[in-house]
Amino acid sequence: MSADLRQAALDYHAQPVPGKIAIALTKPAETADDLSLAYSPGVAEPVREIAANPADAYLYTSKANLVAVITNGTAILGLGNLGPLASKPVMEGKALLFKRFAGIDAIDIEVTHTDSADFIRTVANIADTFGGINLEDIKAPECFEIEKALIELCDIPVFHDDQHGTAIVTAAGMLNALEIQGKNLSDVRIVCMGAGAAAVACMDLLIVCGAKPENIYMLDRKGVIHSARTDINEHKRRFVNDSGLKTLEQVMDGADVFVGVSGPNVITAEHVKSMAPKPVIFACSNPDPEIRPELAKTVRDDLIIGTGRSDYPNQVNNVICFPFIFRGALDVRASRINSAMKRAAVEAIRSIAKEPVPAEVLLAAGETELTFGVNYVLPKPMDPRLLPRVARAVAIAAEDSGVARIPLPDNYML
Ligand SMILES: NC(=O)C1=CN([C@@H]2O[C@H](COP(=O)(O)OP(=O)(O)OC[C@H]3O[C@@H](n4cnc5c(N)ncnc54)[C@H](OP(=O)(O)O)[C@@H]3O)[C@@H](O)[C@H]2O)C=CC1
Ligand SMILES: CC(=O)C(=O)O
Ligand SMILES: [Mg+2]
Asked: Which part of the chain is the Malic enzyme N-terminal domain (predicted)?
C-alpha cells in the first residue's frame, strides 16, 4: 500500500470522530411526555407484550432490522489471526456496508473466548437481540463447527459471510466470466488456492452450479489436497484429488480457472502463463491478491481477472451479496438462509451485470463505460439494482422453500 493511501486510510478512520458507525435515535426524546413513552412508565407496555408473545419483539424493538457482525478475529481478511480487537475496523466496515447498501442497522461484536464452545455459547446467549447474525473472519476449520452449532441454536438467520457471501459472489462472477470466455463450468479445470472457510464454500457452491469435483484441485500451504496426506482435516478431505498432480506448477499448467482465497502473491506470472487459453483468475485475498492484475496481464491478453479490491476492475467481494441477502431474509423473517436463497442470490447478482449500467453507477465507479465483458463480470457494489433484485429473489426463495415466517410484503421491492 502506498504511503499516501495508508495515511488517507488512517485519517478516514480517525477523523472527524474515531470509527465508522454511530447509533441514531428513531423516536422523539425531547420532552417529559416523550420520555414517558420512551422510558418509564411507557416502556413497560411493550415489555409486557413481548413477555407474553416473543414475536412482538419484531414490532416494538429494533430487532427486525438489526444484524450483529460477530467475530473472534482469527482470520481477519488475509492478514491472519490478529485477535478480536484488531478486527474491529473490518467489522465496523461490514456494519457500514450493511447500512449504506441495504439500510440494515448492524453492530460489530468482537468476542474474546477460550474455545469454540465458549464462542458458540456467547453468541447463542445474545442472539435474541438481533434479527440476524453475520459471522465474520473466523478461521477454518473452527468456523464450520461454529456456524453449524449456531444455526441449530438460534432462531434467526446465521450466515458466515466469508463462506457463503464469498461463494455466492464467486459463483455469480465465475458463471459470467466463463460465459464470456466461451467455456462451461462443467468442463473447466479449477485450481483453488486456499482450503479454509472461503475456499470450501466457494468450491461447494461451484459444484452445485455444475463444476465437476474431479476437475477441482484445492491447495493449502502444503500443496494439493490428496488422499495420501495425513495432515488434512475432514473439510479438506472432501476435496481430495488423486489424479497424481501434487504441486502448484502441475495443477496450474493447463488450468482454466484459478480461485485464490488464501494470501498475497502466491502465484507468479509463470503460473499464469502456463494456464489454458482464455483463463479466469479470481485473486480474492484481501487486501493483497494472490497476484496483481497488472503482473498477470503482462503475460496474457486473453485473461479475465478479478480481485477482492475496489480499485481494480471485476471486484469479487462478498459486499456484493451480504447486505442484500440479509435484506431479503429479514423482510420475510426467514428462520435461516438456505441453499435455495443462495442460488437465488447467485442468479440475481449475475443477471444485473448483463444489463446496461446506470449513469450514477458509472459516476460512483469513476468509469465512463461499463459493459458486460472481460472488465465487467459482476455489478458494482453501489449499483442500486442490487438491493431490490437480490433481496426480492432471496425473499421469494425463502417463502417458496418454507423458511419465511411472514408473507412477502405486497409489491415487495417492485
Ligand atoms: N474477496 C472476498 O470477498 C473474500 C476474500 N477472502 C480472502 O480469502 C482468504 C482466506 O480467508 P478465509 O477462508 O476466511 O481464511 P481461513 O483462515 O479459513 O483459510 C485460509 C486458507 O488459506 C490458506 N493459505 C493462507 N495463506 C496461504 C498461502 N500463502 N499459500 C497457500 N495457502 C494459504 C490456508 O492454508 P492452511 O490450511 O494450510 O493453513 C487456509 O487453507 C483471505 O485472504 C481473505 O481476505 C475471504 C472471504 C471473502
Ligand atoms: C472480504 C472479506 O470478507 C474478507 O476478505 O475476509
Ligand atoms: Mg471476511
From this structure: 18-151
* Nearest ligand, measured from the Cα of 139: 1
Q: In this model, does residue 379 exceed pLDDT 90?
A: yes
Query: Cβ(93)–Cβ(100) under 8 Å?
Result: no
Which residue's CA is the closest to the ligand 2 atom numbered 6?
A: 77
Query: pLDDT (tens digit, 9 = 90+) per residue, 323-346?
Result: 999 999 999 999 999 999 999 999
> Which ligand 1 atom is at minimum distance from the Cα of 262?
22
220 CA from centroid of ligand 1 (Å) = 9
DSSP 127: G
Does residue 162's CB lie within 6 angstroms of at least one atom of ligand 2?
A: yes
Residue nearest to atom 3 of ligand 2 (CA): 162
Question: Domain limits of the chain?
Answer: 17-156, 164-307, 318-400
DSSP category for residue 280: E
- 39 counts as catalytic: yes
Which cell numbers hold the place of 157? 438467520
% of the chain surpassing 90 pLDDT: 100
Q: Does the beta carbon of 316 sit less than 6 angstroms from any atom of ligand 1?
A: yes
Using a 10 angstrom Cβ sphere, with 0-12 exposed, 13-18 middle and 19 or more buried, the burial of residue 252 is buried
What is the pLDDT, as a whole number, of residue 319? Answer: 98
Q: How far is the CA of 162 from the centre of ligand 3 (A)?
A: 5
DSSP-assigned letter for residue 1: -
Is 164-307 a CATH 1.10.10.250 domain? no
Name the band, by pLDDT with cuts 50, 70 and 90, for residue 1: confident
CATH 3.40.50.2000 assigned to 17-156: no
